[in-house]
Amino acid sequence: MPAPDLNLLISAAQEAGAIGMRHFGNAPQVWDKGGDAGPVSEADLEIDQMLQSKFQQARPDYGILSEETDDSTARLDTARQFIIDPIDGTRSFINHHENWATSLAIAQGGVITDAVVFLPAKNLFYAASRGQGATLNGEKISVNNRTALRGARFLASGSQTCRALWAQNPPPIERHFRSSLAYRLCLVAQGRFDGMLTLRRTWEWDVAAGHLICTEAGVKVTCQDGQEPRYNAPGACMNGMIAANPELHGQLMQYL
Question: What InterPro entries does the database record attribute to this sequence (predicted)?
C-alpha cells in the first residue's frame, strides 16, 4: 500500500531538512534570480531536485508546482498537485539565520488537503491533514483567542503598514517580522502571534502549507479581498493573505 500523502510529505521534508542543514552556514553558492525575485542558493536547487524526483516516483499522476522549477501548464490538467517551496526564507538561510523552512502541500480541487512546514535549524515540524487538526512536533496546536485588535501582535513586513494600503489609517497592531511566510502562518496557528498579513501578490508555494496548518488550528485565512484562497491557479499567485482568529480577522478587514 502506498503511504498516505501526509506521510510522503513528512518523509520528503525530513530529507529536505538534511540537505538544507548540510549547506546551512557553509557558504553555499548563491545566485540572483532577477526580476525582483530574490536569491536562490545551491541548497534550494538540490532540495528541489530531490523533491521532484521523489514525488514523481511516488505519485506520477500528481502535478507539481515549485518555486524553483519552470512552471508547466500540465499541472492544470491533474486532479492533485504538489505545491512546494524548497527553502522559504532563502535570505535568512544564506545569512545564517534559523527562520527558513521547507514548505510542502498537496492540493485537490483548489483546496489544500495535506501540508508540512519544517524548520530544521529550529527543530520545528508543523503538519496537518484536512479535518484532522494541526500539530507541532506531534502535539496539537490551536490559534489564540485574543479579541482586541489594538496592540495585537501581527507578523508583517514593514511595507504593510504604509497608509496607502488602508482605507484611512493602518490598524492599531504591533508589527513583528519573520522572513518566511510559511513560518509566519505557522506561528499564528501555534498561537504565538495574533495574526499575519501580506497585502501584495502572494505566490502559492509560500502560503499553501501554512494555510492548511492555520485553518486546522482554528485560524481564519482569506485573501485581502475576503475571498477563500484557491490553489493550482494558472498564474500560481493570489491577492495577498490575512490570517487571524475569526474575531481579529473581521476587525482587521474593516480597515482595508
Answer: Inositol_monoP_metal-BS (IPR020583), Inositol_monophosphatase-like (IPR000760)
Which CATH number is associated with domain 153-253?
3.40.190.80
* 226 DSSP 8-state letter: S
The architecture in CATH of the region 5-140 reads 2-Layer Sandwich (3.30)
150-188 pLDDT per residue, tens: 999 999 999 998 888 999 899 999 999 999 999 999 999
Verdict on whether the full-model pTM lies above 0.85: yes
Domain definitions of the chain by residue range: 5-140, 153-253
User: What secondary structure does DSSP assign to 158-222, as a single string?
Assistant: GGGG-GGGSSSS--SPEEE--S-HHHHHHHHHHTSSSEEEEEEEEEHHHHHHHHHHHHHTT-EEE
**Residue stretches of the chain with pLDDT short of 70:** 1-3, 35-36
Q: Which residue has the cell 517551496?
A: 85
Helix (H) or strand (E) holding 241: strand 237-244
